Amino acid sequence: MNERKERALICRAFDVGLSGLKGDPFLARRVLAEAEKAAPARRKKRLPAMLIAALVLTAVTAYAVGRGLLSPRVDAKRLANQALEEKYGLTAAMLGFFSQDSQGNDGRHWRVTYDRGDELGEKLGSYLVRVTDGQVENVSWTLEGKDTTGGFDAEAWGAEQLGEMVKITAATHDMNRFYQKIRGENVDLYGGMDEADAPAAETEEWMQETDAEIQAQADQLMKGLQEAGKASEERSAFTREELVGLGRQGVIDAYGLNGEQQARLQFEDTVFFPAYFSAGHPDGHPVFHMTFQSLAEDGWQEGDGIYTVEVNALDGTVEYLDYDTTLDGNG
Predict the structure, then answer these.
(1) Rounded to whole angstroms, how far apart are CA atoms 90 and 100?
(2) CA atoms within 13 A on the CB side of 203
(3) More confident residue, 204 or 25
(4) From start to end of the chain, where are the E strands?
(5) Comparing C-alpha atoms, which of 306, 319, 330 is closest to residue 279?
(6) HSE, side-chain direction, 13 A CA sphere, residue 155
(7) Hey, CA dihedral for 121, 125, 130, 134, is it positive or negative?
(8) Residue 258 region, left (φ>0) first, then alpha (ψ -120 to 50), else beta?
(9) I need a labelling partner for 203 at 20 to 30 A (CA). Which of 47, 118, 133, 138 fits?
(10) Distance of CA 55 to CAs 47, 50, 52, 58, 243, Å?
């Protein structure tokens, strides 16, 4: 991977790795990473004494570690992704150009949306999938019926154009050309990387300043973060290694990764992608947050990117799963 792509990936890490944390995210990443290194090895908690409870928990744990359990929300998103591929030919990489959200109140009915909240939304439209009790009920596109033929000159951009966008951004990491296109500017969509896409000198200076700030404040916040994570970790019914296995299997199950893609999928516990415990909502159950990366040696491949996972540390359920292709958008 060249320096430009490494820098782009690092910048994406800031956006994706711990976007849900409050406070200073840059400092939090470094502090949490150091806290995990200092934390003692976890020992698996003992099972309840009652035989029947032990049998039930053992059975559930064995299934979870072997296969992975997806929460209704995550499973609804998995089903929605499959439905969009079946009806419109949209792959996970293509869906990476959309902001995705799963909403449901009763755990049975889910509304999975795929939106683009900027100018490109006029061409890409929005997708909606309704899932009830594990079954897809409806799949729709706001630009249904519009002409998608004619490449990027088409009235609407569907699977054909999204597929080309994946190829172009994988090679150039430049989205600006698509905005130029819809604005009617003269642009070579398949040309080399635009000069504006090159890393700016101020970016390197900003990263150096950020690193210095992190180092200066890390000691001050380290103790508090260690204690916050320790309380949740002590309640975990699984070891860290088991939780990583559950998270990894969740990614594989949700996105149907093949053997080659699975081989590239690597667990990350670094300054940019720290693995850590916290209290989940709304009942405060312990949650383990982790990140996996998939990077091909010879350039971006289908399935590559950053997967952010949250696993319930009491029952092993994958409660949250996000896929960022690193090309553009959030999944």
Answers:
(1) 14
(2) 11
(3) 204
(4) 69-70, 99-103, 109-115, 127-132, 135-141, 265-268, 276-279, 286-294, 305-312, 317-324
(5) 319
(6) 7
(7) negative
(8) beta
(9) 118
(10) 9, 9, 5, 5, 20
Per DSSP, the residues of 96-114 read TTSEEEEE-SSSSEEEEEE
Q: Of 27, 31, 135, which is closest to residue 79 (Cα–Cα)? A: 135
CA–CA separation, 93 and 90 (whole Å): 8
Residue with tokens 């929005």: 126
Q: Is the CB of residue 13 less than 8 Å from the CB of residue 273?
A: yes
Please compute the mean of the pLDDT values over residues 188-201 and round it to a whole number: 60
* Sign of the dihedral through C-alpha 239, 263, 31, 288: negative
Residue 224: per-residue pLDDT? 60
For residue 126, the model assigns a pLDDT of 98
What letter represents residue 210's amino acid?
T
pLDDT at residue 43 greater than cutoff 60: no
Q: Which residues share a beta bridge with 310? A: 289, 320
Amino acid of residue 264: R
Q: What's the pLDDT tens digit per position in 170-186?
A: 988 889 999 999 999 99
Tokens of 252: 């594989």
245 vs 222: CA distance, rounded Å: 27
CA dist., res. 292 & res. 283, Å (int): 26
Per DSSP, the chain holds a count of helices (H) and strands (E) of: 11, 10
The helix, strand and coil proportions of the chain, stated in percent and rounded to the nearest 5, come to 45, 20, 35
Residue found under tokens 């699975």:
262
| % of the chain residues with pLDDT over 70 | 68
Residue with tokens 């990491």: 173
* Amino acid letter, 32: L
The residue count of the chain comes to 331
